[in-house]
Design goal:
Length: 99
């Protein structure tokens, strides 16, 4: 997810709402924020949960896995990014940079 469809090992993942389309949505948001003077950096890593897989009749596999995502926002101009939605309560407007 961090490197997108050209990343090492990406070919092993089927395209779908939690792979390719999620990456495209993240790129769209990143580009939109950049147009507003806000930089979004997002990285993904395996979560500390076990991976579970079922072998399919055709030799493939159905795999359940979890990833953790880390997002960082920065802006050269104060007030460029409003905190709303899921972030309310996590970000403290009185102390930028601290959650």
């Amino acid at each position: 997810m961090t490197g997108g469809p050209d990343a090492s090992g990406a070919a092993a993942l089927a395209d779908g709402p939690t792979t390719g389309r999620a990456y495209q949505a993240l790129r769209k948001v990143t580009e939109s924020l950049a147009g507003q003077g806000v930089k979004l950096s997002s990285t993904f890593a395996p979560a500390a949960y076990r991976v579970h897989a079922l072998r399919t009749k055709d030799g493939g596999a159905l795999v359940w896995y979890a990833m953790k995502q880390h997002e960082a926002y920065s802006a050269a101009k104060r007030g460029s990014l409003a905190v709303s939605g899921d972030l309310v309560g996590l970000a403290r407007p009185d102390r930028p940079g601290h959650a």
